[in-house]
Each structure stands twice: as C-alpha cells, then as structure tokens.
Design a protein that fits this description.
Aminoglycoside 3'-phosphotransferase, Chain: A, domain 2, alpha+beta
C-alpha cells in the first residue's frame, strides 16, 4: 500500500491503481467523531445523482480490525493548498483558470440540487459549532466572542435545506487536463442545511488567502461574477452571505486552533482572528 495522506484528519492509502482506502485518524483528531458509514452513504448518494464522487464505496476492516472506507481512485490534478503557487494552475493561463473555477462552482450548485440523502437530517449549525468550541479545548477567547456575535446576529430567514459538501475547496477536487471535475473528495463535513454555508466557506477561505498573501490567481472570476454564476445555477439569490462568511471563518479558525492544539503547537491564530474581527466590524 502507498500512503497518500496521513495525519489528524484522515489516513488514505492507495491499494492499487484503481482503489484507495480511508481510515479515521489514530488518536485525537480534528473532529469529535469520524463516521465512515455516513461518509459512504453520502458519496454513493452523490454519485448516484450524477455528481462525480468516488463511488461505489465499501466498508471493510484491516488486519487490526480498524474500519476503513474503500473507494475508487480518481486520477487527475488536485490543486495545491495555495492556488497561485500551484504550477499546474499557473500553466493553465487565465482562460483555463477561469474554466477551472467556474467548473467547481457549477458542481457545487449541482450538489445543492440533489435530493437529500435519507440518512441525513438538517442540523443546527450554531449548536454544532458551539459544542465543537467547547470540545476542542483550543478556542481562544477572541474566537468565542466572534462565535457569540454569530449567534446574536443569526439571520431570521432560513433557506431551504440542501445537501452540503462541507469542505468546499479546490484542494478537494480532482480535475482532468481540461480542468473539468473528475471527482469531488472529502465528505467528512457533509451535512444538511442552507446552501449559503457551502458558498460562504468557499468564498471566505479564498478571500482569507487573498488577505494573507496579497495575491490571487489572475483568471479566477471576481466575487460578484462568481456569485452571480452560482445564483443563476441554484435558481435563487443568496441571502445574508456576509454573516455566513463570518461564520465560515469562525468554523475554519476553530479547526485550525484544534489542529495546532493536538499537534502540541502554540495556538497561533491571531492573523486569522484579526481578519475575522475586521469582517465583524464591517457589519456593525
């Protein structure tokens, strides 16, 4: 077996040229629970709906009795963590970069048009992430105050629930040479809720990189254009997106703080919290 990833989120091994197996992390992880059965159900449901996802999935145990999720291996390009430093993305040129970005947006809208998996129920995201902050043992006081702002300013109008991918990032897609989406990966954060959660996660993490690095992939569309394209495919306008983006930054910062905590590193989230607090201030 060839290890593809390993660590605190999950461990993935390539079994052969056509399949991989994913395990929950050994020891403390980023999340309180790792439900591979649930992930398998979501991936199979998504694939059955016509969205490219690694399926069919099979649950099996290794020689030690540890449960793993076996799925097809998706060959192609996986963008790096910082897109403007990825040589493959750079080599696409502006037209190819625009095509990559809009292809991912279109796949996200397609996910949100799927029927809801029968095994998933809508959840109260504020309740879930409030519990997460308490469990993580790593949330700085500034982050808790930002969460309290989100709770106090939660939008009154709730959008109809859709299947949420959860961790919407370019690094969680596999693309072919033409930048078409071959597979959507990493469904451990999948849930049911307002589509705004997924879009805000994608936009907020992207803008966070823009703020931290001061640079953006030249061919990626500007926010207004990207939002308009997604809304046209969803079939309705996005509501209260500024609030959802602040909440996305709270959630992503909480995960980063937890990661640093279990790695035994000092909690160094001040630059993220500075950006988060500036976003809150702009809405007051």
């Amino acid at each position: 077996m060839e290890r593809l990833t390993g660590g605190l989120s999950s461990e993935i091994f390539k079994l052969d040229e056509s399949s991989v197996i994913r395990f929950a992390p050994v020891g403390p992880g980023i999340f309180p629970q790792y439900d591979l059965t649930r992930q398998a159900l979501v991936q199979d449901h998504v694939a059955a709906g016509g969205v490219p996802a690694p399926a069919p999935t099979v649950l099996q145990t290794d020689v030690s009795g540890r449960l793993g999720l076996v799925m097809p291996f998706a060959a192609g390009h996986v963008p790096g963590a910082v897109p403007f430093l990825d040589p493959w993305i750079t080599g696409l040129g502006a037209p190819g970069q625009a095509r990559l970005y809009t292809n991912v947006l279109d796949v996200l809208a397609a996910i949100h048009h799927l029927d809801l998996p029968p095994a998933l129920e809508p959840r109260d995201e504020l309740e879930y992430w409030g519990d997460y902050l308490a469990w993580s043992q790593a949330a700085p006081g500034r982050l808790r105050r930002a969460f309290d702002w989100c709770r106090a300013n939660e939008p009154e109008v709730h959008a109809p629930p859709v299947l949420l991918w959860g961790d919407v990032r370019l690094g969680n897609v596999v693309l072919d040479d033409d930048a078409s989406v071959v597979a959507v990966l990493d469904w451990e954060m999948a849930s049911v809720g307002a589509a705004e959660h997924d879009v805000a996660w994608f936009f907020a993490l992207e803008s966070l990189q823009d703020d931290l690095f001061g640079k953006r992939v030249p061919g990626f569309p500007e926010r207004r254009e990207a939002r308009a394209r997604y809304e046209a495919r969803l079939g309705r306008p996005l509501n209260d997106l500024d609030w959802y983006e602040v909440f996305a930054l709270v959630r992503s910062t909480a995960i980063m703080a937890r990661l640093q905590h279990i790695e035994g590193k000092p909690i160094a989230t001040d630059p993220l919290l500075d950006i988060l607090e500036a976003r809150i201030a702009s809405q007051q």
